[in-house]
């Protein structure tokens, strides 16, 4: 699945930077990244957005687009799905001069050269966020992680949770779905999907558990609704808006650095 390149500005001043942002898909979090990017750019460049769902079947089309555009843009900002790209896409991306390349959210060891990057360290981010929440988490005897089997960075998140649990002598369980017997009193839960969060809250209602007292909940990724849901859901989240701003700053400054993005712990009533 591909989309036409969308222009963010109608006119282009002479010698103005041209940037092509390439996302595999759009969601609320990627919109925040884009908004942060545009906020920092603030008219200093023309930014076009291209949505391309990476797959082996459409690698040829993607290669054709990049070859056509490689001389038209000063920078290519890629936000790749964690399980992509495959060898075909790596070859295409490696054909872009590294001076023109910036990666968003995740570094890739198979991309050569001195490129710019704003990344998340999923394992360390989770560990450090849980450490900030240590006083609240230690009210419970167990920390559980409910995470989708297909979640791209599951391994790193789970390792961060296990590291925290081991250091603090907490029992740790990993679940890939929510069931009645999964949700237990006097235990804390890190929940990595909106659906699992909803299912957990419904289960708490059925069992007459009070969130923040009988059970502790930490949700992954901030959304406006979590500020008011069940009296406020505690959140760990990368700062998506800041990620976009950091990426734009690297381009405007010409730096070829790898910057770890800010990761937030937001304490609310659910923990």
UniProtKB/TrEMBL annotation:
Annotated Transcriptional regulator LacI/GalR-like sensor domain residues: 155-255
Gene3D superfamilies membership: 3.40.50.2300
Any GO molecular function: DNA binding
InterPro entries listed in its UniProt record: LacI/GalR-like_sensor, Peripla_BP_I
UniProt entry tagged with the keyword DNA-binding: yes
Keywords: DNA-binding, Transcription, Transcription regulation
Keyword Transcription in record: yes
Protein name: DNA-binding LacI/PurR family transcriptional regulator
Organism: Arcicella rosea
